[in-house]
Amino acid sequence: MDLVGACRAFVSVGERGSFTLGAAAARIPQPVASRRIAALEKHLGAPLFDRSARRATLTPFGREMLPSAQRLVRLADAMEYDAETARRTPLRLAVPDTCATLALARLEAEARGHGLHLEFQPAPPARRAELLRSHQVRAAVVAVAPDSAAWTVPLGLAGAAPPRAAVYYLETLRPGRGDPAPRARRVWIQPEDDVPHVRDRLVRLGDTLGLRPAQVAVAGSLTSAVADTLESADLLLCPAGQAAELGLHWRPLGETALPRGYDVAGAVGAGDDAERIRTLLGAAVARCLGAAAGAEAAA
């Protein structure tokens, strides 16, 4: 028996003294209200209404039980309200600050279709990890090594001028013996890629190819890196999609594949938030990151 539904019918009829008016107030047909009240009487073991009267008159037992039923109905209503409020409480998610506004809007729209309400906290990698550790967010898209990533984003080099070749070879940036020392072409690493599995690999490759130490550098901000790239022959390490947004000409790196790696992690004690995002929104997150997901990432 639906105890709450039966009590709701009982309260509605008992307060109005009419099966017709009570059923209408409870938004159920009168026969349904009568069946629910009869089931409740059977469950409680005594009649709640005097069936010999023309109106819906409470029996002494019914008058005793009405306050308890009213409390149960109020508690049920409060629980439904709290559940609705909880469902609408935004899930704060730390995301790369390189994600475009439109991409985040599409991710949020898809999340709403799954009953998730996201609130984004854009931040660079180290800040995202700190937000997660300090429980300022419930989940975060974190930078991880590509071999353990849920999503990967291929990186290449982008410059202001259209390149002649189909790929950029880092060794072509190596200064000649007669070149002056002060200003060789640089490769700028933006803050989103200032993580060991990207930064250290690129620095080691530059050392192996004979580049000067300052030729592979971490920029203070994406804005400054793009400014340096636009005013010189410097190159920016970035994905193809980001290069297109910035109006730069992108080519893959010739010597090695160098992808970003991402996964989603949940705060300690936050339940299954990370798994819900990964399972329900995996493809949407991949599109937001400009990544390949699942089998595409492994290809």
Please provide a brief summary of the model.
One of its GO terms (molecular function) is transcription cis-regulatory region binding. The protein is α/β, with parallel strands linked by helices and 299 residues long.
Structural summary, described in words:
- It is a single chain.
- This protein has helices at 3-16, 19-26, 30-44, 60-88, 101-113, 125-133, 196-208, 222-230, 240-246, 273-289, 295-298; strands at residues 49-50, 57-58, 91-96, 118-123, 139-143, 151-159, 187-189, 216-218, 235-238, 249-252, 258-266, 292-293.
- With 299 residues, the protein is an alpha/beta fold.
- It is built from eleven helices and twelve strands.
- The chain has three domains: 3-88, Arc Repressor Mutant, subunit A (Orthogonal Bundle), CATH 1.10.10; 91-147 and 264-298, D-Maltodextrin-Binding Protein, domain 2 (3-Layer(aba) Sandwich), CATH 3.40.190; 151-259, 3-Layer(aba) Sandwich (D-Maltodextrin-Binding Protein, domain 2), CATH 3.40.190.290.
- Strands 3, 4, 5, 6, 7, 8, 9, 10, 11 and 12 form a ten-stranded mixed beta sheet that branches.
- Helices cover 46% and strands 18% of the residues.
- The two termini are 54 Å apart.
- Belongs to the LysR transcriptional regulatory family.
- Keywords: DNA-binding, Transcription, Transcription regulation.
